Amino acid sequence: MRCRKCGGKAVINMPQHRLALCKEHYLAWLPEQTERFIKKYRMFTRAEKVLVAVSGGKDSLSLWDILHRLGYQADGLYIALGIDGGVNYSAESQRLTEKFAAERGLTLHVVDVRAETGKTIPEWAEATWRGREKPCAVCGLVKRHEMNRIARDLGYDVLATGHNLDDEAAVLFGNTLAWAGEYLLRQGPVLEERGGLARKVKPLCRFYEREMAAYALLRGIEYIYEECPFSAGATSLYYKELLNRLENDRPGTKLAFYLNFLEARRAGLFAERSEVQQALHPCPGCGQPTSAPGLCSYCRMIEKGRDSQV
Ligand code: SF4
Ligand code: ZN
Ligand code: ZN
């Protein structure tokens, strides 16, 4: 396989684009494409301050690397969840994230969940559900809450996450199986700011997972290989597997599934649902916007878990 641009040895083949590239041209192509998507979906401009949520994984670190190279004002936010799982998951991902930032002279904010709330994520899961459920629901709540709080307190215009096409297609697949209109309406490369919630963007949403892995590897980014120990058995992984089977037989299926969805949404397929979106009001506990009648779900979790001893 030869690079389409220079005829040199290709390191990656992307059948859905009928494109093979060498290392040098691939490392240039991916940021160029990212820039194109940032503009196409009007994610942010160079005048705006971007907060990148970094987990220490290949996607978020690559995103930060790309935005930095493209000349955007991008700082990082690492949320220390306190997850060990026998592989020292949080400690190791924090170490790699801090190393990445230090080597490039980038600004990284670190929020320690235990210091903020008195408990780690697994401890909160234990306190609220007696460990019956995986901590992912609690973890998602805390991450959303902290990302929005830091973005608001420190004056960032936009929050960027490293979700790739495989992530987005899996979520879309799940929401489509359930015909979850409200979720479908809110899925996309950009979630506009509303009622005190920062604008959220996913600049990598059109890249396959393998493309991001190749970028991180070729760029020499040191990232944590282990997945969070709690991700094992997640439904989203099962959906990813199914979609990979479709993709194997028909290259481009995943991308078409996602892009055709965006087109249908743009054409108003889910439009009437937007009118029933609930209004947001500030939570009496933390002041962040919520559509719940009283306290927001984050504050309710804190309330529920506060008194139990772990
Ligand atoms: Fe949090 Fe679950 Fe993701 Fe682990 S797999 S980081 S617990 S949401
Ligand atoms: Zn080339
Ligand atoms: Zn609240």
Can you walk through the features of this model?
Helix 7 (165-177) packs across helix 10. By secondary structure, the protein is of the alpha/beta class. The protein is built from 13 helices and ten strands. The strands form three sheets. It has a six-stranded mixed β-sheet, sandwiched between helices. Strands 1-2 form a two-stranded antiparallel sheet. Strands 9-10 form a two-stranded antiparallel sheet. The protein is 49% helix and 12% strand. Bound molecules: iron/sulfur cluster and zinc ion (2 copies).
Helices and strands, with pairings:
Blueprint: E1 12-14, E2 19-21, H1 23-40, E3 49-53, H2 58-69, E4 73-80, H3 89-104, E5 108-112, H4 113-117, H5 121-129, H6 136-153, E6 158-160, H7 165-177, H8 181-186, E7 190-191, E8 199-201, H9 209-219, H10 235-249, H11 253-266, H12 271-274, E9 281-282, E10 289-290, H13 297-306
Parallel strand pairs: 3-4, 3-6, 4-5, 6-8
Antiparallel strand pairs: 1-2, 7-8, 9-10
The structure holds iron/sulfur cluster and zinc ion (2 copies).
One zinc ion binds next to α13.
Shape: globular
Q: Which oligomeric form is depicted?
A: single chain
Strand order of the largest sheet: 5-4-3-6-8-7
How far the N terminus sits from the C terminus, by CA atoms, comes to: 57 Å
Major sheet details? 6 strands, mixed
Give the overall average pLDDT. Answer: 93
The rounded Rg comes to 20 Å
Query: Helix and strand string, N-terminal first?
Result: EEHEHEHEHHHEHHEEHHHHEEH
Number of strands: 10
The tally of helices reads 13
Beta-strand percentage? 5-15%
Helix content: 40-55%
Low-confidence stretches: none
Structural class: alpha/beta
Ligands bound, unique: iron/sulfur cluster, zinc ion
